[in-house]
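Reminder to self: C-alpha cells first, then the designed residues, so the page reads top to bottom the way the pipeline ran.
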C-alpha cells in the first residue's frame, strides 16, 4: 500500500478513473455490437446508421486512452470494410 500523500492521492484518482473508463469501454462495445448485429441481420441501412454512430465513439476512445489509438482505428476500418462489402454483395 502507498505511504506518501502523493501516492495515496494517485491511488484514489486511479480508482475513480477505473470506474469511468469501465463505463466508456462498455459503451464502445455496445456501439460495436449494434453494427455487428445489423451486419448479421443483413440490414444495410441499419448497419450504415450504426456505423455512423459508432465511428466517433471509437475515435474518441482512442484519443482518450480507453483503447489504444491503433486499435480504435483498426476497429473502425474493419467495420467500415464489412459494411461496404455488404453493399457490394447486393
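Designed residues (90 positions):
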Amino acid at each position: 500500500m502507498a505511504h506518501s500523500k502523493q501516492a495515496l492521492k494517485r491511488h484514489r484518482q486511479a480508482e475513480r478513473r477505473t470506474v469511468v473508463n469501465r463505463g466508456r469501454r462498455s459503451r464502445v462495445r455496445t456501439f460495436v455490437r449494434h453494427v455487428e448485429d445489423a451486419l448479421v441481420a443483413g440490414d444495410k441501412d441499419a448497419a450504415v446508421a450504426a456505423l455512423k454512430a459508432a465511428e466517433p465513439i471509437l475515435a474518441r476512445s482512442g484519443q482518450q486512452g480507453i483503447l489504444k489509438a491503433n486499435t480504435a482505428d483498426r476497429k473502425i476500418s474493419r467495420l467500415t470494410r464489412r459494411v461496404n462489402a455488404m453493399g457490394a454483395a447486393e
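The longest helix spans residues 5-41.
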